[in-house]
Amino acid sequence: MVVGVLLVIAAVYALYKGSSTAPTCDGRQMSASDRCITHYADGHTVTQDYTQAKHYDAGLAWVLLVGGVAVAAASATGWQRRRGYRLGEA
Description:
The protein is an alpha+beta fold. The protein has helices at 2-18, 50-82; strands at 24-25, 28-29, 35-39, 45-49. It starts with a helix and ends in an 8-residue tail after the last helix.
């Protein structure tokens, strides 16, 4: 349950912070005219412009949020079942 709550907190912070900050590429903030080129060990490269990088950052925060809620809900359900409660009785 703690892991789920931490994921939700991280996601909310990322959504709040990400709405006003520029995306980063290799640790540096991008400007509107920048392109980020990432080289992977298997030989392929990925190129993102400013808009694509900003969209990716926001998408990752939403994935964290959904994952955190799912982990917290599953943990809460398991905890209640171990204690002998059913969801309708609590």
